[in-house]
Description:
This protein has twelve helices and 19 strands. The protein is α/β, with parallel strands linked by helices. Strand 16 (266-274), helix 10 (288-294) and strand 17 (297-300) form a beta-alpha-beta unit.
Amino acid sequence: MRAAVLHEIGQDKLEVLDDVEAVGFGPGRVRIRVRATGLCHSDLSAMGGVLPQPAPFVPGHEGAGEIMEVGEGVTDVKPGDRVVVCWLPACGACPACKRGQTELCLAGFMNAGTPNFRRPGGDLFGMAGTGTFAEEVVVDARCAVPIPDDVPFDIAALIGCGVTTGLGAALNTADVEAGSSVAVIGCGGVGISAIQGVRLKGAAEIVAVDPVASRREAALKFGATKAVSPEELGEAKQLVTGGEGFDYVFEVVGRSATARTAYETTRRGGTLVVVGAGALDDFLQLSMFELFFDEKRILPSMYGGGDVLRSYERTIALWRAGRIDLTDLITHRVPLAEINEALDQMRTGAALRTCIEI
Length: 358
């Protein structure tokens, strides 16, 4: 089968190969025919070494497709079922799951260390234990979440990561108060989803911040009341909040520099929500005095900060009701053979989300 492979961490291009085999099928596992997958910035981060990921590997973790085969003991799905790939499945038995914090379950991360592809040259890993830049993938059955027949594969793929992360940051983690002022720093697919989430919660002012003009224009269409470049953020803070700072600021970039800017843009007693996935060695500096004196809440948001399965269901319900727009989040479409074009679209900021049609 075909798959896009990164041979070494740090390379900026993928090689599309025809000699890759999805392996690991057996009890408790399923084989999925991938139909659509989104390109998430986390894929680029893994390719560049910002996020830890064994190599060589098949990127992609935001996918949807059809069940081809189920292993012994699998009862929740059957061949022919349409599913979204969940890269962080909950085991249901660990302390985090028992506390209801299923997004903190570590069972899914254990999958990332086991190769789930093979080619004549040796084993390959899958991004976050999945690897959806491939025609087929074998994963734990808990990674295959059934979706209704009326949800297209491209929409379902977005729900698998970016939309769930952005919406959840607003709805679950921050639980934004109606009438509040909000700034969202970073307006790719996740940031736009956060904007839609805070709009749903009734935020009065939503300022989108991004260096790319096309993304700022898109943010206005998705619910932002104002869109500015990073250089204009200080002026927007003064104009919208009288210089006090925003009630909520979402950092959706994953860098300490932007997190520091976000902290300084948050009002005293306000809330900074850290959504972006950053590097292990990128440290945010805060003084003990400002932490005490400003009383700003700093809330990290992992995969939307809530029960993933419930979040999927909620997102589908909101999409069906026309309360959120997922179709226009997909600004580009390319076949798997042109995956490197999609990488360029992500790097330049030209795309909110590129759908890889497989």
